[in-house]
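Dear Dr. H.,

I hope your travels went smoothly. While you were away I took the liberty of generating a structure for the chain from your last submission, since the lab meeting agenda had it listed for discussion. I wanted you to have the full record in hand beforehand rather than looking at slides cold. The sequence, exactly as received, is reproduced here:
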Amino acid sequence: MHLTGNTILVTGGGSGIGRGLAEAWQAQGNQVIIAGRRKQALDETVAASPGMNSMQLDIEDPAAIRSFAAKIVAAYPNLNLLVNNAGIMRAEKLLHPREDLADATAIVTTNLLGPIRLTAALLPHLEKQPHATIINVSSGLAFVPLSLAPTYCAVKAAIHSYTVSLRFQLKSTHIEVLELIPPYVATDLMGGRSDPRAMPLPAFIAEVMEILSVQPTPAEICVAAVKPLRYAAENGRFDGIFDGMNSAFADIH
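The corresponding predicted structure, in token form, is as follows:
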């Protein structure tokens, strides 16, 4: 992956990890466009980073995704790096679910179908670029689930699997496919911003940028804090880590 000279689209770029990545790439001399549903968050992020741009996107709406893809390619013909970061996380009580399963439906639509649809819409354009990259953001919880957020964890596991297949299918193209696997980071997702157990966002972004500077870029971008989750099964520690983590986070609602 090239570190500079890119035109980068970051979904969910108005806050949290998406904003942190967008600001870091902008500082490295890239053209960055952030996308999301919340105009106020987008505007605040752009105002804090002169030169950054934004476009609204409803990642749950298939028609809106197709329209967005056409508009961004027309506006930024050199777009060559897609970061599928937008996501939501909600606690679910499986013994007492909402009758319409609205939370589960929204999580699957936003976190899984959204990236799949946006990737499909932008692939024809990315294939034409001299070099291009797709980064899908999964989670350490794809490998050791947090039981209070079952659909979120299941969808992140699906993103991991989808990314592996996408990488294989695109191996004959100029498109590099990477997976960013965050640990528990201090963002607004599930109230993590004020949780001392979460990895500080600036430290996470700094370590990710350091990993991205390695050439060739690792297919999986894992900061040190997420490695116990990522490799729990391989190291024979899954049960212990699962039990310990779910006991420790039983207080989150």
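Two observations you may find useful: The chain has a mean pLDDT of 95. Residues 7-248 form a domain with the Rossmann fold fold (CATH 3.40.50.720).

With kind regards,
E. W.
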